[in-house]
């Protein structure tokens, strides 16, 4: 077989493959649910109910989407420049560690000063964590996929050390968790009485900001140029190495905000299970969003809904929650294929 | 000197070879994929799937080698999916690989929960036992280290020899290497680059799964969720460290495993009382990164690695 570019794809050609990809994802999930002894209609019904069925469910979905918007943006920004950042998990924890260090009383400033200071410090930490692999890539040609992946393991062990050592809560009954943040360091709720903190708003603002950077600034143009063809970009006079390093700082900073928002907004302290793989899920979010910053918000809400819904579905029907992870992995693989098929036709030799 | 005592003990080297075995299988698998031009980031998930598949098959009543075969076939199935997406469709090998890892891992955990819904701790199987090779196992230090291992460890060494022989001594191996270096030349010979690359990914993925199965069927006798724990990513570093050559990659895996066995023993010494245990656990990952940096200058990367091939295009 061979792939032939389509000059002017029709509307059907551009929409049908992605729709089919989603339909097939649900078909696979239905089949697996049946194997586990669940009725597919009931399973999907429970997922929907668990994600959107009540005010509590909707807030839970929005809360779950918040870190995914940040990690999704981090991955989207990096992947656009073909910087393969698989280390958003480590960068998230870098942000979380800084938040726990500065927010537990080290700085006794009022909220309006303290919150932005911690946010910036968290971003710097995350930026640094990705900066190292980016330098190894640009200076030594070391593949960043492997280094960022390995850094995830290193950083999680570092967090484990901190939580059993210097950051351990003396009042924590021996549990490896940090002390609670002082009230001034906590992100307040958007509306009093609703369990949704300002981290969600910050995530939306970040998405819009990245969209503006992407569409309206020189950096955005340069990042896309480097991603499309680094050689051509270099030939056109774009400082490729510097653009890659800038992209790394931006991407790492965004992922760190996920950790910041989880600790300062949702949890109030740092634990080793702060992230159930938000860094890795960010890759799925970014790909489903076709690497578009605003699409990331939609994709993060979709992914969060499936996760939150699957949790309550599992309690109700007894089908394992891992169904959600399977759906996302399937959606990721089928979606990249579908996007290809919107632009190319398959011909037999 | 305590450290010297560790390095000269037979049990230390026996442990090193044991730790190296799953890495050897998976590193050879990755090496075969990459020599044909395909980076297979599905390795981590495929190892998880292989670890589970082999173990559950034996738990369900299959003989041990039957379990190994089930693991092999499971890995090949994921390899088939990977290769369809990454070779004829030429999709980003990074994205496909990460997707396969997520898919294999989540399918494994799902199946575990479906097959064993009620258990709080996973059941144990009768794992591979050490088999002492007569005479050879009596050699001091070397004997217990190399010739008193389980049959699956011996199989790992056989796989290295077979991989090297096929790659360098057969027309098939030449075709595989050419597919990773100069695919146009392969196509000009009338061979199918697509078929060669897909075959390499499928076979390589099967070996990765057997590497995973070593953990549940030889190193331990049960399955845990975080069992593979980044070993797949380490194997990718080992392929680079070994400059894409089976012999050097084998040496790298053994060196790496020796270091791992050493840090475990170091934790028991006075050093281990002062230094937090997390530092020791970090070392393998740090070592992998250092190896990548050190080898980056003179690494002989297959020229067409990660470059999709479309016939008639140049």
TrEMBL record, chain A:
InterPro entries: ABC_transp_permease (IPR001851). Keywords: Cell membrane, Membrane, Transmembrane, Transmembrane helix. One of its GO terms (cellular component) is plasma membrane. Signal peptide: none annotated. CDD domains: TM_PBP1_transp_TpRbsC_like. It is found in: Cell membrane. Its main location: membrane. This is Nucleoside ABC transporter membrane protein. The lineage of its organism: Bacteria, Pseudomonadati, Pseudomonadota, Alphaproteobacteria, Rhodobacterales.
UniProtKB/TrEMBL annotation, chain B:
The chain crosses the membrane at residues 6-26, 38-58, 64-87, 94-115, 154-176, 196-220, 232-259, 279-296. One of its GO terms (molecular function) is transmembrane transporter activity. Keywords: Cell membrane, Membrane, Transmembrane, Transmembrane helix. Its main location: membrane. It is found in: Cell membrane. It is a multi-pass membrane protein. One of its GO terms (cellular component) is plasma membrane. This is Nucleoside ABC transporter membrane protein.
